[in-house]
Task: structure prediction
Amino acid sequence: MKIPDMPPARRAPLAAALLAGCMLVATAGAHAADTDAWSTAPYSLGQGLYFPAQGLRLGGYANLQYYDVANEPPTLNTRDISLFVTKDLGSRAQLFTELDAGDAVQLGGSHSNRKHGELDVERLYVDYRANPWLNLRLGKFLTPVGQWNQVHADPLTWTVSRPLATSSAFARHAAGAMAFGTVTTHGHDLDYWLFADDSRDFDVGPDQDRAYAASGTDLPNRNNFRHAFGGRVLWHARGDRFTLGMSVLGYRLDAPRQSYRLVGLDFGWSGRYFSLDGEGIYREGGSPGQPAETGGFVEAEVPLAQRLYLVGRLERYRTSAPAQTVTLRTLALNFRPVPGLVFKLEHRDGNRSTELAPAGWLASFAVLF
Amino acid sequence: MRSHRLAWIAALTLLPLAAPCPAASTDAVRLVVIASASQPLKLAPDRDDLRNIYLKKIFIDDDGRRLIPVNLPPGTPLRALFASRLIGMGEPQLADYWNRQYFQGVSPPYVLASQQAVVRFVATTPGAIGYIASCHLDERVRVLLVVDPAIDPAAAGCGEPAAH
Result:
């Protein structure tokens, strides 16, 4: 069992975030007087604990993941224990933070492959509602590329493993400013995000965006931004039954200090008997002669019983370092006995024994609380 | 000839009883979206705007005042009808939507216990928006939009005693 050890450099931002949270809770009572008319729903799993008088919501998620993949001893670990704090700041602003203890507890695995526990400020930002169609965000947030990266928590995804196209070619977090909102055209909504990142100067906590960690390997590739800018649009037909998104990104990584350009496409379709979704990316740049990184996946979800789903995914991805192309096939079961609880079991296989996403069995139990 | 004239008079006299009359249509129960009558919104929301207010994609009106959509309890017929007719989603799909939004720091609308509570809350809370059956309308609130022009009065809870 690994007890988290935290380098001193991580302590300052975490302590600041915790202090800010404590101050918000302590001062929140001042707003209680004008909200005695609230009548809120009782606590339910997956929605957090809400204090209407304080405009404060506490929640989070946790998961337990089991990996039994090729060339690795089986491991059982708490990949994420995350705490959410949402606090209204007047009528126009809101603070949100997510503190994440990753790999805090780990059983099994060889000594050399054991991951070190990390305590990170995963997200920390303030949103300001400028007008009905424009919101501004300042702080550290999830990079708006594709649909998976913005909603990646285990209780909310269909599979334990994460497709390579959703995390391997860009930093999952950005630090800086973002404008976002929704405009409606002919009865259909168009969501937009525009952001500028200056992680070199503004990053909150030196977390490491490991390129292949989400697929179960720990190669040294890091994707932390130094600077980035980009945008995303998501068109959805009424009721979210069909979505089509596009992301465009230009960025410079911290190490190696090279520039890249990325374009991503994603879609989702929900029918009566099954649903389909997928994402793909194309990245060029890097050192001279470095091949483009490109790939994507298509995934289908079929309800077998009321809360039991069969999930199949086909994925193909070409990485630039190391330069290789992999094809992955994933077959999974996803069981949601009650909202907020998810059990998953999946088998992943590939066209070759890849170090990027080794074949094997994966399972998880996740709760959104 | 005389008998024909009497027949025409009788037919003309009975015609209003057979044809739909204006009074009957005004008595139909409708599903309506309401706001406070005394504290008007600085926004003229159409159907799309109201959907996005309920999905928490629009947070404030043109004056920067917070918009506060409120819901009826899960499982109530009027809530299911509202979700289907205005938002275009069923309850399970909406639950998935709110789980994803919660992960991104956005909370679902508040839930109030009854339509009477919705009227009381909307009437007294600046920026509040609710939905009710038109049989519960009174002078404290005004109608922003008619979502459904004819709903079942029994399913809409018309005639129930006030909960508050």
User: Anything to note?
Assistant: Chain B has one domain: 29-156.
